From TrEMBL:
<feature type="domain" description="ABC transporter">
    <location>
        <begin position="6"/>
        <end position="259"/>
    </location>
</feature>
<feature type="region of interest" description="Disordered">
    <location>
        <begin position="114"/>
        <end position="135"/>
    </location>
</feature>
<protein>
    <submittedName>
        <fullName>Heme ABC exporter ATP-binding protein CcmA</fullName>
    </submittedName>
</protein>
<dbReference type="InterPro" id="IPR027417">
    <property type="entry name" value="P-loop_NTPase"/>
</dbReference>
<dbReference type="InterPro" id="IPR017871">
    <property type="entry name" value="ABC_transporter-like_CS"/>
</dbReference>
<keyword id="KW-0472">Membrane</keyword>
<dbReference type="Pfam" id="PF00005">
    <property type="entry name" value="ABC_tran"/>
</dbReference>
<keyword id="KW-0201">Cytochrome c-type biogenesis</keyword>
<keyword id="KW-0813">Transport</keyword>
<keyword id="KW-0067">ATP-binding</keyword>
<keyword id="KW-1278">Translocase</keyword>
<keyword id="KW-0547">Nucleotide-binding</keyword>
<comment type="similarity">
    <text>Belongs to the ABC transporter superfamily.</text>
</comment>
<feature type="compositionally biased region" description="Basic and acidic residues">
    <location>
        <begin position="115"/>
        <end position="128"/>
    </location>
</feature>
<dbReference type="InterPro" id="IPR003593">
    <property type="entry name" value="AAA+_ATPase"/>
</dbReference>
<dbReference type="InterPro" id="IPR005895">
    <property type="entry name" value="ABC_transptr_haem_export_CcmA"/>
</dbReference>
<feature type="region of interest" description="Disordered">
    <location>
        <begin position="232"/>
        <end position="259"/>
    </location>
</feature>
Amino acid sequence: MNPAKIVLQGLVVGRGAAAVAGPFDAVIAAGEALVVTGPNGAGKSTLLRTLAGLLPPLAGAIRLEGLAGVDGEPAERLADVAHYVGHRHGMKSQISVGDNLSFWGRYLGGAATGRSERSRQNAERDRNTPALSGSAALSPSEALAAVGLPGIDSIPFGYLSAGQQRRASLARLIVAHRPVWILDEPTSALDTASQTRFADLVAGHLGSGGIAIAATHHPLGLEGAKTLHIDARDPRSAGPGTPDAPLDEADLASAEGWL
Ligand SMILES: Nc1ncnc2c1ncn2[C@@H]1O[C@H](COP(=O)(O)OP(=O)(O)OP(=O)(O)O)[C@@H](O)[C@H]1O
């Protein structure tokens, strides 16, 4: 059987009607990572937000093969089978870290409550193995322990340091199982030990047949990852779309959401 895969075909991404980057052609199969690099403003975040379904593609297609949603049916949209962790944490400052993660677990179809026996067994194993497999949905407490933040469930998210906030937001990846992780600068603000722990987490996800797509300015420690480099674009160059057209701020705001 062919492995599950994501196929980008002539994908052009942009903001409003203005093309920012592309066309991109790539195949990312189960167990593979794609690391997206490029200078500031090249379009890395725009590409990732498009893959996450937060911005519409300007041209081309994102095709899925063999990826199933939580209902077991073949997925048609990448957003339905993907975690997206962007520059913003997607966590409410005023409520506790545990409640934030419980929300994400429920919203993304995880097992924050009522875990399966398999999940419980995996969690038991992972207590002794910080490099988690990404395949099990963990409780918020277990996910926090896995990112090196044990026992902080009841603390408001806003009380955490910058690096702790990043780690807590990355814990979202393991309170619900999704086969594709889309990560924008995931290791920003992380200390060296946390970067290593995160690399182990992603390696576990890939090892269990997951896919990771990450934009970064720093090495992620992912051996054998595919790379996609986006060159700086001459702002005067004309691409697909209408670069000089004014952005529709209302459309943009609704597409941007809060992530
Ligand atoms: N909300 C927005 N509205 C209009 N243009 C935007 C918006 N966000 C980004 N852009 C423009 O899109 C282009 C690509 O930005 P993007 O954030 O994708 O770059 P990046 O490669 O992720 O950069 P960085 O390394 O700084 O994070 C830039 O020219 C930027 O000015």
